[in-house]
Amino acid sequence: MLGTSLASLAAVATSRTTCRFCGAPLQDVFVDLGMSPIANSYLRAEQLNRMEPFYPLRCLVCSECFLVQLEEFESPAQIFSDDYAYFSSYSSSWLDHARGYVEMAVERFGLGADSRVVEIASNDGYLLQYFVERRVPSLGIEPAANVAEAARERGVQTLVRFFGTETARKVAADGPADLVIGNNVLAHVPDLNDFVAGIRDVLAARGTVTMEFPHLLRLIEGREWDTIYHEHFSYFSWLTVRRVFAAHGLRLYDVEEIPTHGGSLRIYGCHDAADLADTAAIGELEQREREAGLDRLETYLSFEGRVREHKWAIVEFLTGERRAGNRIAAYGAPAKGNTLLNYCGVRTDLIEFTADMNPVKQGRFLPGTHIPVHAPERIREERPDLVFILPWNIRAEIAAQLAFVREWGGRLAVPAPEVGVLE
Ligand SMILES: [Zn+2]
């Protein structure tokens, strides 16, 4: 018995050396962001004097299928614990995005009281609540118990589980799903093949699965390396994601490029044999990815040098502001901010505090950097000279909320796509 448990512990702690999808050996580094804490592990004051686990944040690329992926160090159960701080409903632009999706889906797929919608990683019910409003039978699947409880409170039926073939069997026993949704979950899945096989098992014969995930093409072109963190195991191009679904009998018949998370793909898939025609968009995107070199290893190997240049520019910018005597606060406490601040070695000598609307994060400290997180009102009280917007992908929304900073001559800045002050 002891032998078994030690062996399973070792399996968690050992780095992965073969591709999560195709099993080829992994040897090529896409980008090495050094040692970093788990991005969502916000600390309480009493934890600041304790040891804090840091893990390698090293991203590899498979030379066979070009799946960009992290070495795996943490078990999913540790990452998505009861303490998991992410609640989708705190971002108003994200709620607008969800509402717009539901309107589109009801219309395009003709969903009604006889249909069934299943969302994987349904979070606090931020999206399914709009199907519930329209009386479309819906089921959420969400591994974090406290987040699932919030969904139930808004009337969204939720199963507390990870998704894979085992959960799919249980869900399919109550009937197939006309629409399977997965937003920002595909990248977080440790067992990718079991997950996609589970989608196939739960999807109705003429059903559609839609998935949204950050687009690797945009990550590379926009140098969005701060979207790399431990919870985010895989980074997909269109070329690679299509191969992954095809390996499990699912055909991707449409794709849209959407602005969320710095540039995402929304893919539409069905069973191979379903009578849903391929759209022109898929050929167009495939050609663009080939032109960008996503089917050649050299493209991936040239990324790290561009990331280092960006880091140096960010450190120079913050240091220059401090040397000029300016006080800097940050805005937001997103996972991407933690990757950025840790890789750049930022501490409270550069950024005094950050402010976030999510009450779960307020009163805590960012992992690794130990920058305190306060409520947004703190910015008005402290009057910093510069507010550094960490969730730069929603900078327009945040800049509007922070317009009051100009009352005392304060300025707003973003780290990306180029670091600098917002005009
Ligand atoms: Zn591979």
The spatial strand order of the largest sheet comes to 6-5-4-7-8-11-10
Largest sheet: 7 strands, mixed
Number of DSSP strand runs: 17
What class, by secondary structure content? alpha/beta
Q: Uncertain spans, ≥5 residues at pLDDT below 50?
A: 1-14, 81-85
The average pLDDT score comes to: 91
Q: What small ligands are held by the chains?
A: zinc ion
Give the strand content.
15-25%
Cα-based radius of gyration, to the nearest Å: 22 Å
Shape: globular
Description of the molecule:
The protein has 15 helices and 17 strands. The chain is an alpha/beta fold. The strands form three sheets. Strands 6-5-4-7-8-11-10 form a seven-stranded mixed β-sheet. The chain has a six-stranded mixed β-sheet with strand order 14-13-12-15-16-17, sandwiched between helices. Helix 13 links the parallel strand 12 and strand 13. Helix 6 runs parallel beside helix 7. The relative contact order is 0.12. Zinc ion (ZN) binds next to loops.
